[in-house]
Structures are given as C-alpha cells and as structure tokens.
Amino acid sequence: MPKNEKLKSILIIGSGPIIIGQACEFDYSGSQALRSLTEDGIETILINSNPATIMTDPSMADHVYLLPLNTKSIIKILKEHPQIDAVLPTMGGQTALNLCIEADEKGIWKDFDVEIIGVDIDAINITEDREQFRDLMEKIGIPMAPQATATSFLKGKEIAQEFGFPLCIRSSFTLGGAGAAIVYEEKDFDKLLRHGLEISPIHEVMIDKALLGWKEFELELLRDSNDNVVIICSIENMDPMGIHTGDSITVAPAMTLSDRTYQRMRDMAIHMMRSIGDFAGGCNVQFAVSPDENEDIIAIEINPRVSRSSALASKATGYPIAKIAAKLALGYHLDELNNQITKSTSALFEPTLDYVIVKIPRWNFDKFEGSDRTLGLQMKAVGEVMGIGRSFQEALHKATQSLEIKRNGLGADGKENKNYEQIIEKLTYASWDRVFIIYDAIKMGIPLSRIYEITKIDMWFLKQYEELYFLEKEISTFNIDSIEKELLLEAKQKGYGDRQIAHMLKCLESQVYNKREALGINRVYKLVDTCAAEFEAKTPYYYSTFESDMETADGNRFAHNESVVTEKKKIVVLGSGPNRIGQGIEFDYCCVHGVLAAAECGYETIMINCNPETVSTDFDTADKLYFEPVFWEHIYDIIKHEKPEGVIVQLGGQTALKLAEKLDRYGIKIIGTSFKSLDLAEDRGLFSNLLKENNIPYPEFDIATTADEAAAIADVLDFPILVRPSYVLGGQGMKIVINKQELEQHVVELLSAMPGNQLLLDHYLEGAIEAEADAICDGEDVYIIGIMEHIEPCGVHSGDSNSTLPPFNLGEFVMQQIKDHTKKIALALNTVGLINIQFAVKDDTVYIIEANPRASRTVPFIAKAYGEPYVNYATKIMLGEKKVKDFTFNPQLEGYAIKQPVFSFNKFPNVDKTLGPEMKSTGESILFIDSLKDDQFYDLYSRRKMYLSK
C-alpha cells in the first residue's frame, strides 16, 4: 500500500537539549525523518528546544519551533497550524514519547483531531510499564528473568526477601537507565530502592533477579503496516549483563552467537514486536543469553521507537533506519521502498555485513570530580565512537584510536597500567578504561581463565586480545630494517597504528610509514554497502583496511581499492570526533553547513569523522564519507589518496584544530585562517603580545612551565589567580586559586597530566561581567554576527553560563569597545572565516580573556536566534568564493534569546555541582523572551551567583 494520502502535514517532536542518556543520535534520527517526509511532499512542523543541532536549522523543516518541550508549546503550535494531520513522536527519544503520552492523557491530540503515527500509545505503555510488559511476555511465551513490580518501599522489601541477592532495580518510564542499580548486598538495598521509586515518574520499580555474567544482545527491527519485518542488525555487547548498553563496548554483527540461537532470537524479537501493538516503524529489542552450551534466551526489554542503537545500526549497516521508519509511518510497505545504498534492491532486503564494527563509549569523568567511575545500569557516557574494519581486531583498534584520550590504540604506546592490584580492581568493578585494561592484564601474564572468571567477557573476545598481544611480542623482536613484509602487513591488518609499530620497533613513526610505503603496504578503501558486495552499491561511504595483493593472470599484483578518485576539485572537512563536554553537537552542525556550502561552491565534498550519532556521518551529507578516526595517520592517507584543494579545520572544534600543525608541516593547504594565526591565538604568550601591540587591555598575566615559576609570578600578580593551560577546549584544567598552596598543587597536577604545556596565570577580575562576540572576517572586513552577555559573573565557563543575545545591560561605551576590539583582533590574526572572542568587563573597561579563530559553541545559537546561515557564509569566505561585503545581513530577532545550559549532574549524585572555569554542561536549550521583565529572565538573573565556585 502506498502512503496514506490523508497525511499532508506532520508534527515531529524532537528530543530537546543533550543530556547523558539522550544525545545527538536522536538529532540524527529526527533530521533523517524530516528529510524523508519532505521527499514525499509532506509539510513538516518541528518542535525542539535545542539550538545547537542541525535538526533545528530552518532548512530542515517547513516550520521550526524552538520552544520548551511541554504541552503548552504543543497547543500553541496546533492552534497556529490547524492543518496538522498527525504527530510522529518516535524520533525524539524518551523525551518525545513522554510528551506525546502526556498530550494524549490531556486529550490534546483528540481535541485537535491529530493522529499519532509510527507507534501505538498502548505499545509505549506496555513496554514502559514493566509489570504490563512482563504479563504480556508470559502470555506469549517469551521467557524473562524472575521479577516483580514494587510501587511502595514495603513491597520492594518483600520482593527482595523472596528473591535474594544480587538483584536489579529498574525504574519505570526513565531514560538512560536512570534510577537503575545492581544491589549485591542487603545493606545497600534500602537506599537504592528509595532512589529508584523517587526517580520514576509513576513511582514504580521492577525488581529482578540479576543475570550477572549472562551475555547481552540487541536486535534492530523495522516493521510495516503489512506486518513485514526486517532485522537490520544484530549487536553484541562485549560486556556481559550489568552494564547499560550505552556504556558497553558493542560489536556488530554479533560475534559469539550460534546460528541456531540467533534464529531463535530473531523469532522471539519478531513475535514480541508483533504482540505489543499494531504499528509501523522501528523497534529495538534486548536479550540476555546464558553463557553455557544451552544458550537460554531471556527478554530484557523492547523499545518501540528508534533508539541510541538504531543510529549505530544505521551507520554500521548503511541502512537508514529512521528514514525508512518515517516512510513506514506514512503507510508505505517495505517492499515498495528502495534500499538507499544500492538503489536497486528493496528495503525489505536485510543487510549483510562483510566487515565488523566496534562502538566504544566516550566518558568525561574528569569533569565530575569525586564521581563514581564504575559502570553499571545507569548510563554515564557522553558520546561514542565507532571503528569499521575487516576483523574485530582492526575495528577495535580503530575505535580506540578515535577516542581522543591520548592513546594510539590498544597498548604498544608506553601507557599501559602495570599495577597488578589496580588491574584486578578495574576488571572486577567495570571501569571506563577496561578496553585497555584487558590488554594490560594479558601483557602482565594474568591468565585468560582468570580474566574471564572476573569479567565474564566471552572467551572469544579475550582470545582476540591475546592474539594481538602475541603479535606485539613477536614484532618487538625485530627492528625497522629486519621486519618482513608479511609481519608488517599483519600488524596493519589487525589495526595497529604506525605509532604503535614504531613503539614496538623502537624507531620513529615516519620510518614505519616510509617502510610500508616502500613495501607497498597501503590502505585500501572499501564501501559500506549493506549487502556484502553481492549487489553494486551506489553510495560513497568508505572505511579503510589493508589487503594482501591479488595477482591477475598477466602477473599484475594489486590490492583492490573501491574509492574511485574523480577529476573534480575537492575539499576535505575534518569532523569533531566523539561528543564530549566542551565539544558537542554544535561543531557537527558547523561541519554539516561547511560541507553544504562547499558543495554550493562546486567542490566535491569529503567528510572524515568517526562519530556514529551525528548527521555529518550520514552517507548522503557529503559527496564522500570516510568513516575513519580523526587521527593523523588515517587523515594523511585519505588526503594522499584524494588530493584535495585543501582541508577545513575550523569547523570541527579542537579535534580538527589540533591537526592543523601536522597539515601545515606536511604542506597541506588549510582552508581559511592559516595555521600560524590559529597557533598564535592558542599560544597565550604570543597572543598577549599581539594585544599589547594593538593597545587592547587584558588581565595582567605571565607564563609558567614549572611550579617554581608559578610561585614567583604569584608574588607579582596577586591572588585570586586564574590558571589556564594552552591548547585545550571546554576550560579543561582551568581553575581559580586563592593562595600559594592551591596554586602549587594545581600547577603540579596540570603539568603531570599535560607535560610540556604552557600555563597562563591571569589576575582574576573578580566581579567582572563576561561577554563574547562571534564574527566573520575575510582578512579585510569584519562582520560581527552576535554579541552575547553572560548572566553569571566572570569565572563561570561560557559554556555553563546563561547568555543573552543581544546584551541586556552593557552601555554604549562598553559595546563600542567590544566592537572595536573584535574588529582589531580579527584583522590582526589575519582571520579568514569565523572567530570568537571572550571579554571581561570591569569598571567600564573591556579586557580580552581569549580569542579563537574558529567556529565556536555559540555560532549555531546565534544563527538560530537571528535566522541567518552564518556558517554557510563563513565557509564561502574561507574558500575565497565570497567577501563579507557580498552578503546582505538581515538578522531577525524581537526581544532576546537566552542560551540556557543543561547539566547531567543527576548521573553523579555525589559530585560538587558548583560552576567554575571548567565546563560541565552537556547541552543547551534556547529561550525567547519579549522583554527583560519576563519572569524567567528575572529568575535566572536573581540566581546568577548561586553556583559560582573557584
């Protein structure tokens, strides 16, 4: 059946600000759904309060409402658009589903005659209410762990008495495992039960017998209204039950399932999906499998919406789940739709993979001092990376190289843990770095049987690790001259980076690179093609690997490369890697706009990124996508292969910026602002000299590289002193110190964590107002796109401050200084593209805190508030296609827009929640107010000093 012709106008609910447990994977799903509906001529109306994402770009929907996600906003939109026929709530995570249910309970959809598509309200209620779900599973014969529901403290105690420990507590209707915990001993039960009941919106928990040591699997399904079902992807958690899937290292396709058990699991998933309701769309089902010969299967849960894992599954298979799910919600059947990758097979065709993907979460525990770093049922990761390889080992190495935590891969980088007690503890209490610790344990000689006994990670994975260690041991017996081609090729095929091989051979990375070049061991690029190359794929989405040469009949030897280089002029855009605090989705927004602008200028666009959650790694955003680590070796090989006109680094945050020096050294053109200027702005000392030459005020400062130098500087500067390292993002390592003891301690800690870093010591301007400006410069003219004033005083990181656009209480004299300083600095740094400058205002004097000649966190916010595509303009200026004077700027904003940070402190209950120079927020929302008399502004302003810390 083709689409339902009655549907002409559809409301999509987004997921709001990014929090731990609900990140940009829903921005990606929502963006895909919007594009999918638009293709069918549907009018799209979007509600989402997140200004940082591409999803809320005016180009994405016919009408974008940046409003709070509540029923008041829904009513406002439905009144303004009486033509809305239906609402699609499955693309915005738990937030969208909960809002949809609330609107349904209040009768809003009924009042406005709006149909709910893509899911059935009853299906949501069945799957979220753990008691209803259990009853249904029992009825249809799907086994589950022994469990019972408690809606009171007393009932919970009774259940625990009956089941015994260990137990799992899971709260109903929560996200990211909020309120969930494993209870090993009775003494901890009362506190955790109370917490679970409190956090559930319906004050209900499910208590179940903990299946510790069982293996965990997920299946991603799609189903149409004709009851056709396809399984898009099987995902195996390397970690056994007990760790939230968002915090687990996951592998696709499943590695350790027997075919017989996989078929049983498929049948159960399809049976479950069909039984929870009559709806068309995506679904995610989670199972536990016993780690013995029986392979008993137990259902854990089912989510009748696109999930965190469906973004991963989409990138892993190339099958755009959200895009197809949106079509199914319109009434299409799977057999009527095309597979988007092959363009010739049907969407009813299940993907087959001839490669392996490994996802590793990215944590930010360093931002939450005193937080519990062990992993459990509550998700704590802020982002994730994905590696694609021809084997599990290659994909694992590529994923670890993508994390950006100063590791070159698994081991072989001189950073292994050699402390036996610590290794055993980290294995016993799942630690964030266990992906490395397993390798260290094997290297130390701890037997695999012992590692298995502690972690219950399947022996197959542990043996893969062991093989890597044996290979490292073998390579270490050679030197750069004596190593043979076969061994070097094997190391590359198993994912070892040149840096790691150099570490084993005790030589330089460049020597390894030259050696493999001489031996013809080069990367080849393969298509992510959904069908194991059985059908031709039309979509340029690549990963790299190494192959042994093939020999043709006439004696020619070659390795097959599927990435065909065209004659067109090309531009490479470097992505921002995994989400983390300080560098989030706003940089992905900038990268996507950069790609689109370069395409408008006639370039073939090439995207390099490794984040599976985002729109930049969608297979149809750039002309070519290389899903690869944003890691020098991988980038250099792609650049050598593609020979672009240049590389854009100023849109991908600190990740891309850090590679500018290498690009410059290797003679690769940086598009826009030169490396020299980027470096000058990062080097606190050089930058302050530039300010001095231009008569621009800045706080008194000096530079220290040792604790002694810092102490001497403190005698001159006076406390309080702000200590800042160079080349960091999100205020990493920044702190205000008030005496010599604090100063010495912080400097010693910083220099041990960042050896060789320059530390800038500023006299901290107490009580100053903080402001910032973003501008576009072409080397001759400067256009200021926005000036924002922070509501919190100077000392709270700009990413954690409530900020108003335009400023609300800076006089004309101060505003003029800000404008003059911005223009002077942009030109003095020879900026070509974007620049962000931060100011402290005290006694009507404007001091410069720092300048960043790149896209900043606030650019998407200003673009949304003013309704102008500033990144598009800036990219065209970077490419030399346009000048500032070629654009007619026409910002539209009545009243004020306020950027409100959102925190995920609830994941770390014992953490100090005060704010300071180091950023802690995970996301942001936008609030529009007509005047400063608005109650919400008054409330923010009255609390502005509440959280300030040093």
Stretches where pLDDT is under 50 for at least 5 consecutive residues are none
Please count the beta strands (DSSP E, at least 2 residues each): 35
> How much helix, percentage-wise, in residues?
25-40%
Number of continuous helical runs: 31
Gap between N and C termini:
63 Å
Taken as a percent bin, the fraction of beta residues is 15-25%
- Please summarize the sheet with the most strands: 7 strands, antiparallel
Computed structural class = alpha+beta
Radius of gyration: 28 Å
Mean pLDDT: 91
Overall geometric form: globular
Strand order of the largest sheet: 14-13-10-11-12-15-16
Structural commentary:
- By secondary structure, the chain is of the alpha+beta class.
- The strands form seven sheets. It has a seven-stranded antiparallel sheet, with helices on both faces. It has a seven-stranded antiparallel sheet with strand order 33-32-29-30-31-34-35, with helices on both faces. It has a six-stranded mixed sheet with strand order 17-18-23-22-21-24, sandwiched between helices.
- A hairpin with a 5-residue loop joins strand 19 and strand 20.
- Helix 18 crosses helix 19 (509-518).
- The N and C termini lie far apart (63 Å).
- The mean pLDDT is 91.
Structure at a glance:
The chain has 950 residues and is an alpha+beta fold. The chain contains 31 helices and 35 strands.
